[in-house]
Amino acid sequence: MTPDVHVLRAAGVGVVVALPQDGLPEVVHWGRDLGPLGPADARRLLRSVARPGSPSALDGPWPLTVLPGEHDGWEGRPGLAGHVGRRALLPRWRRTGADGDERHLRVTAEATGLRVVVDLTLDPSGVLAVTHELHNTGAEPVDLAILEATLPVGDLAAEVMDFSGRWTRERTPQRRPLAQGSHARESRRGRTGHDSPLVLALGTPGFDESRGELWAVHLAWSGDAVHRVDALPESRTVLGAGPLLRPGEVTVEPGAAFRTPAALFVWSDAGLDGLGHRFHRYVRGRAGHPRRPRPVTLNTWEAVYFDHDLGKLTQLARVAADAGVERFVLDDGWFLGRRDDSAGLGDWRVDPEPWPDGLHPLVDVVREQGMEFGLWLEPEMVSLDSELARAHPDWLLQPIENEVRPWRNQYVLDVSRADVFDHLLKAISALVTEYRLDYVKWDQNRDLIEAVTGGRANVHRHTAAVYRLLAALRDRHPGLEIEACASGGARVDLGVLEHTDRVWASDTNDPVERLAIQRWTELLLPPELVGTHVGPPVAHTTKRATGLDLRIAVALLGHFGIEWDLTECTPDELDRLRAGIAAYRRLRPLLHSGDVHHPPTGDAGTSATVIVAPDRSRAVVRVARSVTGDRALPALQRVPGLDPGRRYRVSLPLPGPLPRNAPPLFEALDDAVVPGAALGSVGLRLPLLHPAQAVVLELDAVD
């Protein structure tokens, strides 16, 4: 019998799904939109792509379903695995329902003791969200080992790209040829991780920023995770992702259900930037996406560290406000016993030693200066040297009696416990209410090693509880904004960003390091969600000295902020910083709504980022050099995304001298008007930059 066919279509993407009566859905096509398919054309398509039998294999064709398994004939990593009692989980599915439209398909199937609900939702941006929900309809508990979303990719996929990294060097890309076999990237850190794959992409040979066809997946989840590729000789190549479930961690009791976090699948025929454009439109289309301008933020960490002094911080607040800062965030060191990182976590009360009158004197000054006030917290963590740990040692997710190794002198609270959840919600809400907090920098500074409750692995339930805690806090305080920080960029994913307003991309503010970190973070996130701060002249993490112009230029293309003791700045530094802040505030409507491009520069020592307004009337271009190049004549820099039929005036939004030997265009900017076609196909001759220099251009259409 010919299966039913359902077609999803949006933004040039098409997903064709076969719906057999016996068995689970089979994705026949995921890629370029094929247009409307009537029943006859759909049957012809199924027939044209149907697989034959393979030599020395099963006696007949077999399906590749959204939950591939052994019963179907699949011999790669299963989409579903577990056991009931001592019996392997090998269900024989029968479809019991299917409904949807061009944007959504929901399929229900039954097997002995089980029901599965498969949801496929194609966003207007062309991003396909896939979730599975497994119901236990039997009488025995189901111990779940694997439940992952998978989709087949095009046969032309030949290269694999994902990411790794470490603290202060997050999101480092790595590429390799697609090899035969089942390959899984497993994260067992209890959080997304500095070495997170971020986005796992398969592409046609030689794909780059603007060329090539790609199929990619991101798991919107902050706990343990699996990103997988299965390339078997007798099957189409499969891409997928899902939560990593440790042995015994998830048991679905009779009458209960387990739902996976969303796996987001993205196809593009316009290279890596094409993937980024789809991700950005998806993220910006969320109901909870920040809509108001992203305030210029000063964070006090690298200004004072743990040395909290009202006089110093008051002076810092006044200087910051005069420079144009709109939000002042007091970082670590304000709470009970917190003079260094060895004590105090969990005791979320203001320490009367440095703050005899509480934080009110500082908060009053901040608000008098017209700024919002924010506070650093690390709610999931606890120090053994704290009143909380002494009163409730049973609240720890990592039992001390197991001799769990400390990390930054801290351990983890089990937020999945109702008493821990309620305590944290009450304590944080009290601070938000008393100080009328506008903003919380929510940090998380360690991996979750040996995260167990009652001897049972507990990362998944703990992560879900953290999400519920964030949601409950925002429900109580609707105007509160929250930053997701995890020792820098160790929790950058679209799961935590359902409950927060931005991420801290990395603990390094070294602008040379930040160029690559921010570029690859932009593959997933639009600039307004990525904290980008101007640090001090010598970077805290690398000890590299860089000029203020570069630091401003790098911070400009994100959610701009400052991490620097401004009370030690010279008048000239403050003037330049003030000008940079003014430029950011003027440009942020463009920077935080436009399409982000990363065009080639023709010079391995430089990188370029271009943000083009949705109506193509304006653009910002930044070119920065990290190392010397092999040419004395700078390459022509092309600017993608502009309207070829319009002309654009070129200007410099940031003050300061140009590098020596600037091209003639920059000597007569009053008459610097260039056709869009020329900017896109020929380019501009930019100044020859030295390492740790950048140039920022603004382009405005004049007709």
Description of the structure:
The protein is of the alpha+beta class. The protein is built from 12 helices and 41 strands. The strands form 9 sheets. Strands 6, 7, 8, 9, 12, 13, 15, 16, 20 and 21 form a 10-stranded antiparallel β-sheet that branches. The chain has an 8-stranded parallel beta barrel with strand order 22-23-24-27-30-31-32-33. A 6-stranded antiparallel β-sheet has the order 34-35-36-41-38-39. Helix 7 packs parallel to helix 8 (about 460-475) and helix 9 runs parallel beside helix 10 (about 550-555). It is globular and about 80 Å long. The termini are far apart. The mean pLDDT is about 95.
Summed up, what is this model?
The chain is an alpha+beta fold and about 700 residues long.
Task: List the keywords.
12 helices; 20% helix; 41 strands; globular; single chain; 703 residues; alpha+beta
Low-pLDDT parts are none
Q: How many H/I helical runs?
A: 12
Describe the sheet with the most strands: 10 strands, antiparallel
Structural class by helix and strand composition:
alpha+beta
Any idea what the shape is? globular
Strand content: 25-35%
How many E-type strands?
A: 41
Distance between the termini: 60 Å
Give the fraction of residues assigned to helices.
10-25%
Radius of gyration: 27 Å
What is the residue-mean pLDDT, rounded to a whole number? 96
Q: What's the layout of helices and strands?
A:
Blueprint: E1 4-10, E2 13-19, E3 26-32, H1 39-49, E4 80-84, E5 87-88, E6 94-100, E7 104-111, E8 114-122, E9 128-136, E10 142-147, E11 149-152, E12 159-166, E13 169-177, E14 181-187, E15 200-203, E16 214-219, E17 225-231, E18 238-243, E19 250-252, E20 257-259, E21 263-268, H2 271-284, E22 297-299, H3 301-304, H4 310-323, E23 327-330, H5 360-368, E24 372-377, E25 381-382, H6 387-391, E26 411-412, H7 418-435, E27 439-442, E28 452-453, E29 456-457, H8 459-476, E30 481-484, E31 502-504, H9 511-521, E32 530-534, H10 548-556, E33 559-562, H11 571-591, E34 595-597, E35 606-612, E36 618-625, E37 636-637, E38 647-651, E39 673-675, H12 676-681, E40 684-685, E41 693-701
Parallel strand pairs: 22-23, 22-33, 23-24, 24-27, 27-30, 30-31, 31-32, 32-33
Antiparallel strand pairs: 1-2, 2-3, 4-5, 4-10, 6-7, 7-8, 8-9, 9-20, 9-21, 10-19, 11-18, 12-13, 12-15, 14-17, 15-16, 16-21, 17-18, 25-26, 28-29, 34-35, 35-36, 36-41, 37-40, 38-39, 38-41
Helix pairs in contact: 4-5, 7-8, 9-10, 10-11
